Amino acid sequence: MKKKEIKTNAMRLLDEHNVNYTHYSFDPKGKEAKTGVGVAEIIKKNPKQIFKTILTTDLKGNYFVAVLMSEDSIDFKKLAKNFGVKSLTMSPLKDLTKVTGYIKGGCSPFCMKKVFPTIVDKKCLDVEKIIVSAGKVGNQIEIEPKILVDLIDAKIYDIAK
After folding, report:
1. Residue 40, Cβ neighbours under 10 Å: how many?
2. What is the β-pairing status of strands 51-57 and 118-121?
């Protein structure tokens, strides 16, 4: 029996917009699957292409999304300034699923429960294609940065430390 191909909401969105993307699926249980460099090794890609999606909050009930290279850290001062808010912090992990519909390790910048203001780090422009979560742990999608930015109505700024 043929194994059914996984289709996440993010992949369905890309299909609806006739966007070319590459889907990578891997076993997320291994130790190497816990880091961006490890994921890059598993799917045989450049670690500079692997981006993570981070949910942040101003602690006033407002949420903001940052997409940056997996090995980078967010500069919260830069991020807050670019969003035009006083300060931002990581959203508590317990809020992630309730707010986005995703779990840790499977948070995609596409198809969250609501559309949140989003910034993609400018390092996305250093690579031809970036790889982000497809919305399910162990699944990634590779896409042109401009298409990602356009589809989620994001801005590009320097937000990494």
Report:
1. 20
2. unpaired
What is residue 13's predicted lDDT score, i.e. its pLDDT? Answer: 96
Q: What span, in angstroms and rounded, lies between the C-alpha atoms of 84 and 51?
A: 23
**Quick one: tokens of 104?**
């840790």
Query: Residue 147, CB half-sphere, CA atoms under 13 Å: how many?
Result: 18
Angle ∠(127,135,23) on CA atoms, nearest 5? 55
**pLDDT over threshold 90, residue 5:** no
- Name the range with the highest mean pLDDT among 3-12, 28-37, 38-47: 38-47
**Which residue carries 């816990």 as its tokens?**
34
Q: For residue 118, give both structure tokens.
A: 């989003």
